[in-house]
Structures are given as structure tokens and as C-alpha cells.
Design brief:
Elements: E1 2-8, E2 11-17, H1 37-42, H2 72-80, E3 86-87, E4 94-100, E5 107-110, E6 114-118, H3 122-127, H4 135-142, E7 151-155, H5 156-162, H6 178-191, H7 198-209, H8 224-227, H9 244-249, H10 279-287, E8 293-295, E9 300-303, E10 306-307, E11 314-315, E12 321-325, H11 329-334, H12 342-349, E13 358-362, H13 363-369, H14 385-398, H15 405-417, E14 435-437, E15 443-445, E16 457-459, E17 465-469, E18 484-487
């Protein structure tokens, strides 16, 4: 085994070459990368790709490397199935099981519906260093079972979309998996001493910097079937945490994409968690001030008590209440969702994992809001403006949605007036209260509104004292344990 310098274009690339007499380089001899992704990225050589000579047959994939009678595809299918697999004929012919595709969150029961994806594709490996490997080393990579981030069970159609692309041209549609995907990509490239071209390196670095705490975690094995959220959970991305000003600074400012929107492109009011209640009914139950009465047949809310945070109005007839997407579906489309898959748009339209995404509000107020952003519409209740802006920014940051210039300017002005970095947007168990300020400087509270901190005392315009509590005066817990102003 020796080092040699290969000159490709104007770039000199140092590569590890094996002579015909060298020993086979096994996968186990390539240590798994255990450094933070950005540190691992810094170790990678940036060079032009080697664009000639690739043939898939040069990698000898799906071999029975460990001589147990099962080829690599069968080994990965059995390893990654969430239930015991079923086989037919030969003991390693797998027909069914249960596989969760980390790329799109979909679950499959038939082996014919999934493929085994090389995270870093064989052609990408060839172009970034594998052209100089021995056939034994290429076979080791193509059949690597020592580090299960190298090979993944994914949806057949999604794998076809990925093809041979690197992260500058393809990212998994499941947003919550992207930071893991990038960390694993870097880990594989570090482990196998593969290079990156300039566009690949720049795109990955930018994305990893946006991954926050994920970029400081190690890039050791992350099992896709257990760590990636399912589409049924609604947990598609970490809930935005940090000050509103800091999150606002992370948002891209660009012109909107203003064509092609149709509401049906966002399948909504679905029962994604499989509990029998669609998203609209879930929000009505969650946001009712009193325990909602629900028809057990079909999960239909028949009675409740709702306080609209946009205008402070209180309603007992659900016909007077709309479920509002804080960032409207068309606004989401115009600012990035046009490039999402239907699966991702479905998750956004039915997101119950962050209560800031969907709110029960007065129907007429929701209609006046329509598809407008904060540069064209703000809630009529002025005391709710700071909370509304904080929620807007949190949703946009979480879903990696952009803002146009007028929207960004208006939002930034409002954030600054609300205290900028002092406006917390981490997901609390309680939400800031809806309060108005009297001319005398006394802060009045709105009965029934969300409040913080628990135990705080306030006064309504009626001069009646109110307490911030998680239960009603009779001791009945409020929905989701969120505190509200009640008499006390």
C-alpha cells in the first residue's frame, strides 16, 4: 500500500492506492468517524471530481461477504426490519417485514417496495476517490455492514429521486432527518477518506451550520429506523428554540415563488396519529377552555369553550371558530413549500407537535387574515402582537421558510419593538398572556387567556383579581396543562 499524487485538472489529489499484491482493505479497518460533523467536514479534502471510468460493476455489491449464505441486501433488510422478517424459498429470500424509510418517514411491509441505499452513492464514491481503490476496497464499501449508516432501507421511489446526487442537489424530503443525513454523509466521507467538490462542500457546511446543536453531536452511527420521526407523529423538525431576534436572523430573505399554489396541495385535517380524530377536532379539543364534549363516534366535538387570541373573543359554538395556520398554506408555498413533497406539506398542514402552528380563532378574523403575512395583517388585539410575531418567526425558522423583503422588514421592526432577544420562542408549557395596558400604566389581563408564569396574579379591567393557573377554580385541569388567567 502506498501514497501517490494524482493530478486531476488543476487540483492535486493525494490518494491511497493499493498495488495488486496488497492485502484486502476491510471495512473494519476504516474507523467510524466520531467527531462533530463540522470538525469532520474540516478534515475533508476539497477537490474536483474524477468524472470518467465509472461502472457499477466495479463495486461488486450485494455479495455474501461474511459467508453466512445471505447477501448484503438480505442482511440489511433483516437488520433494519422493525418486526421479524418473513422469508420464502432460500432462507435469505426476504419477502416482508416492516421498514421505516428515514428519507421520507414512510413505512413499508413488502420488500419489493424498498431499496438498499448507499448513503454516499457508488458513483459519488468513485468520483471522490474510489476510482483509485482496489476492487477489494470497493467491494468492502459496497457491502459495508460494519457501520449501518453506510447502507439504509429507503422507499424505492425516493431512492430513485436521490439517484447519484450529493447534498448540493438532493436532500431527504423529511426535514427532521436532514441534519442527521448530513452528519452521516460527512461521517462516511471521513471514514472512507473521500473528497468533496466545492459546491458539495459549501452546501453541506452551510446546512450543518443551520443545524444548531446537531452540528456539535458526533457523527457515529445513527440508526435510521429508530431515530427518524415517522410521518404519523407530526414531528418533522425540532421545535424552534431561541430568541425571536436570533431565529429571525437565521431566515433567508428572498422573493416569493408566486405561482402554482392550490390548497389541495396541502392535504389537511387528516388523522396522522391514528387516534380517530382529525387535526381540526384535535385543535378544538386542545384549545377548549373547558373540557370539550366529543361524540365518541367519529371524534366530532359537539361543545366547548374557546378564546380567540387574535381578538380576545370567547365562543361556545364551534361553528364560530376556525383553525388557523399561523403561517398560511399559501404563504408557506410561496416561501419554500413549493419545493416540498406532498408528504412534507401534509405534515405542515396537520402539525400538532408545536401548538404555535395551528390555533383556534374567531372565524371572521381568520377570514380577514386570509393568506396575508405580518406586513399586511396583524391581529386586532394589539396586546397579542408580540406573541403573534414570535410564533410567526418560530414557525418559519422551524420549517426553513424564507421571507420577502417587506415581510422581513415589518417583522424585524415589530420584534425590535417587542424587546428583540428578550422574546423567547422556545416551546413553553405556558404561553404569554394576552394583556392590555391601561392609560395609567396598569397591565390588565384578559380572563381565560394563556399566561405565565404559573402563580402570577393579575387584574382584569373589571377590577377583579385573576390568578395564572393550570386548573380552573373547581380544580379541573386546562387542556394540555397550559396555564390561563382565572379568578382567584
Amino acid at each position: 500500500m502506498k501514497w501517490r499524487v494524482a493530478v486531476h485538472g488543476a487540483v492535486a489529489i493525494v490518494v491511497l492506492s493499493c498495488s495488486s499484491s496488497s492485502q484486502q482493505v476491510s471495512a473494519s479497518s476504516q474507523p467510524v468517524a466520531t467527531v462533530p460533523p463540522l470538525e469532520g467536514l474540516a478534515q475533508i479534502v476539497v477537490a474536483n471530481e474524477y468524472k470518467s471510468g465509472y461502472k457499477r460493476s466495479l463495486f461488486g455489491e450485494n455479495k455474501d461477504i461474511d459467508k453466512d449464505g445471505c447477501n448484503t441486501r438480505a442482511e440489511v433488510l433483516e437488520r433494519d426490519s422493525l418486526v421479524p422478517v418473513k422469508k420464502t424459498g432460500a432462507r435469505c429470500t426476504i419477502t416482508s417485514g416492516k421498514w421505516a424509510s428515514a428519507f421520507d418517514g414512510r413505512t413499508w411491509l413488502q420488500s419489493r417496495d424498498v431499496q438498499i441505499d448507499h448513503l454516499v452513492s457508488l458513483k459519488e464514491v468513485w468520483d471522490s476517490g474510489g476510482w483509485a481503490w482496489s476492487s477489494a476496497q470497493r467491494s468492502d464499501y459496497a457491502n459495508d455492514l460494519a457501520n449501518s449508516i453506510t447502507l439504509n432501507v429507503v422507499s424505492k421511489k425516493e431512492n430513485a429521486k436521490k439517484g447519484e446526487k450529493d447534498p448540493s442537489n438532493y436532500l431527504p424530503p423529511l426535514v427532521s432527518y436532514r441534519c442527521t443525513y448530513l452528519a452521516n454523509w460527512v461521517a462516511v466521507k471521513v471514514q472512507w477518506k473521500l473528497s468533496m467538490d466545492q459546491s458539495e462542500y459549501g452546501r453541506i457546511k452551510k446546512l450543518l451550520q443551520g443545524c444548531g446543536s446537531t452540528s456539535s453531536t458526533t457523527t457515529t452511527l445513527v440508526a435510521s429506523t429508530s431515530s427518524s420521526p415517522s410521518t404519523t407523529t407530526g414531528a418533522v423538525a425540532p421545535v424552534a428554540v431561541g430568541s425571536t431576534a436570533a431565529l429571525l436572523a437565521s431566515i433567508t430573505v428572498e422573493n416569493e415563488y408566486t405561482s402554482g399554489y392550490k390548497r389541495e396541495l396541502f392535504p389537511h385535517w387528516k388523522d396522522l396519529n391514528g387516534n380517530g380524530c382529525d387535526t381540526r377536532e384535535e385543535v378544538l379539543i386542545r384549545d377548549s377552555l373547558t373540557k370539550a364534549q366529543v361524540d365518541p363516534y367519529g371524534c366530532v366535538v359537539v361543545a366547548g369553550d374557546w378564546l380567540s387570541p387574535y381578538d380576545g373573543a370567547r365562543w361556545s359554538d364551534k361553528g364560530d371558530v376556525d383553525i388557523d395556520h399561523v403561517v398560511a398554506l399559501k404563504e408557506a408555498w410561496d416561501s419554500g413549500a413549493w419545493a416540498w413533497t406532498t408528504s412534507q406539506r401534509t405534515l405542515f398542514a396537520n402539525d400538532l407537535s408545536d401548538p404555535r402552528t395551528l390555533l383556534a380563532v374567531t372565524d371572521s378574523v381568520n377570514q380577514s387574515k386570509s393568506d396575508k403575512d405580518p406586513s399586511n395583517w396583524m391581529p386586532p388585539l394589539a396586546s397579542y402582537h408580540c406573541t403573534y410575531i414570535a410564533d410567526w418567526v418560530a414557525v418559519k425558522a422551524r420549517w426553513k421558510l424564507s421571507m420577502d423583503q417587506s415581510e422581513y422588514g415589518r417583522v424585524k421592526k415589530l420584534v425590535d419593538s417587542c424587546g428583540g432577544s428578550s422574546v423567547a420562542t422556545s416551546l413553553p408549557s405556558t404561553v404569554p398572556s394576552v394583556a392590555t395596558t391601561a392609560p395609567s400604566g396598569v397591565k390588565y389581563v384578559s380572563p381565560g387567556a394563556f399566561c405565565a408564569p404559573i402563580g402570577a396574579q393579575g387584574i382584569a379591567e373589571s377590577k377583579v383579581s385573576y390568578l395564572c393557573a393550570t386548573t380552573s377554580a373547581t380544580g379541573e385541569p386546562y387542556a394540555k396543562g397550559r396555564a390561563r388567567w382565572r379568578k382567584g
